[in-house]
Amino acid sequence: MKKILWIAQLKTQLLALALCCTALINAQATLQWAYSFGSNDFYETDQAFDVETDEEGNVYMTGYYVDSVDFDPGPGEAFYYFSDVKKAGVLAKYSPDAELLWVVPVGDYYGQAAGYEINFDNEGNVLWTGWVLGSVDFDPGPATHLAGGSLTATSIFLAKYDSHGNYIFALAVDGNYPSSGKQIITDDDNNILIIGNFQSTIDFDPSGAEFSLTSENFYGDLFFAKYSSSGDFIFAKSISATPTSDNFDHGDYVAEDAAGNIFITGMFSGSCDFDPDAGVTELTGIAADIFFAKYDADMNLIWVKQIAGNDQKETHAIALDNDENIYIAGWYRGDMDMDASGNEYTLEHSTDLSDDIFFAKYTNAGEIVWAKTIGGYGYDYARSIAVDDEGLIYISGDFYSSVDFDPGSGVHLLEDTINHGDGFIALYDNNGNYLNASQIEGSMWNETYIMNMHLNNAGDIYITGYFSQSADFDCTNGDNILTSGGDYDFFLAKYDSIISLPVDILQLNTMQLNAYPNPASDLITINLPDDFKGNKIELFNSYGKLIYSAIVNAQHTFSIPLEDYYEGMYLLQMSGNDIIYYSKFLIAHN
Length: 590
What we know:
Layout: H1 11-14, E1 24-25, E2 31-37, E3 47-53, E4 59-65, E5 68-70, E6 79-81, E7 88-94, E8 100-106, E9 111-120, E10 126-137, E11 146-148, E12 155-161, E13 167-173, E14 180-186, E15 192-198, E16 200-203, E17 212-215, E18 221-227, E19 233-241, E20 248-256, E21 262-273, E22 282-295, E23 301-309, E24 313-320, E25 326-332, E26 336-337, E27 346-347, E28 356-362, E29 368-376, E30 381-387, E31 393-399, E32 401-404, E33 413-416, E34 422-428, E35 434-442, E36 448-455, E37 461-467, E38 470-472, E39 481-483, E40 489-495, E41 501-502, E42 510-512, E43 514-516, E44 523-527, E45 534-540, E46 546-551, E47 557-561, E48 568-576, E49 579-587
Parallel strand pairs: 42-49
Antiparallel strand pairs: 1-41, 2-40, 3-4, 4-7, 5-6, 7-8, 9-10, 10-11, 10-12, 12-13, 14-15, 15-18, 16-17, 18-19, 19-21, 20-21, 21-22, 22-23, 23-26, 24-25, 25-28, 26-27, 28-29, 29-32, 30-31, 31-34, 32-33, 34-35, 35-38, 36-37, 37-40, 38-39, 43-44, 44-47, 45-46, 45-48, 48-49
């Protein structure tokens, strides 16, 4: 988006609109900063899979790297060397302005690793999961703390660090076939739940006692494993598909509601029992169908729903809004029935032999509210979905060729003219109506994969993933081109919150209000101009919706209580003296 301070850059876009009408202007995401990290060896691939922020606005990234990588985006250097043929897991922390604070590299000549997910407990400690191959040192300090297992198959790891990157503990659960942790959730007692995929037999109790689960499927099953804040084993459960060479069940993406219930989405094939306990709740998928399910905090099944279709489909994203409605996103081929109740809600595919994006909203009970599809003649993928406090829906991913990002009757095209894969961030209202879409455009032979997107409380957007060749991360008319040193490098970028502004705010005759404090918590106070001759002040949320208005009498200051409003970006507007007065501010409750 464009900040209000840059209003002049938007004026020419508004002249065709009636100055007296009020409508939504949706600018593209405005870049705050973007950096890339990677090896200079052309044949090496470095990939990032998750980005998160803590309460202080610090930014965390995880993935893996090969060879030598400088993780300092500034003028300094922070090189970490590893083998040019093996993968090292990395957990890195940056300040809100992208200054490097610390790095935890995990891997040596005797073992490899990759990080997939980051989360935080109630004390601000950092939790990390992924896979490890062999035994590696998880302590970035002078001490050595090894965790791992087999050199022939990846094991699941869980590691914990304080906010300064100091080692607390690490554990690994080992099997004979590849397995990995994919998601982490913590509860009020700082217990840690890992969700991921495993094959064969794994002992999930690292204490020396044994608690084993077995998957008889070649492509593996879904597991849930819970540990205490100190890493002690609590329980482990699994979901099992009927054993065949083709059946599987994978659930890599989760969300949590205020009561601690866990929502999972993923894919399965064949007959699969989604009740990890003694009960049986079986669904049958023909062409790798999608499921989404609700479990309580102890991973007891509450319900499970199926999205069926006649061709390939995948989901890699789930989110909840403040009313605990459920949103999922992914991609599909063929036709797909989005209503799991037995009624029909069919999404049709745009063209043969290409993948279209879908996103859908369900009630907390899993009942369909709406479903949308966007796509073109290429391969289009949604990899992340998020919902802000106002119910705005953010989707990120990558696309090929031309895509109309408006699922309605309008046309809003983004074009990958090279047809090798550009990144996108798209915004929709709570009914799935198009608001805007921004593009990370690459060079010839470039591919840009946004693997994860995160929103902070202010609505700022963080993305991470990996790219090849070069790509312009400035979604506006400016340039911020990053170039990969190797085959693929990972990137980390931050964009301003997207706020939809009334047109009359952006007319030629505008002045900024003096409003304070900013950020505000319980009250915002406005200093009125001495010669002000107006009678109304209005407050808009980030959706552009008018949520407050009041008559202003002959007074020099005016205050608005904010206790009942969600955290996020807001806009004040006043009209008087033939001038539009405005102020953009942030609500951040203490």
